Amino acid sequence: MTKASRKLTILLVIASLGLVFSGCVKKPMTNTNTDQPTNTNQAGEIDTSDWQTYQNEEYEFEFKYPVDWDTGLLNDGRITIKPVGKSGYEYVGDIVVKVRHMGSVGSLESFYASENNGPFRVSNYSIKVISNYQVYYFNNFPGMTPSDLYIFKFNNLALEFYVYNSENSIAEGIIDSLTTY
Question: Out of 92, 93, 147, 159, which could bridge 82 as a Cys pair, Cβ 3.0 to 4.6 Å?
Answer without folding.
Answer: 93
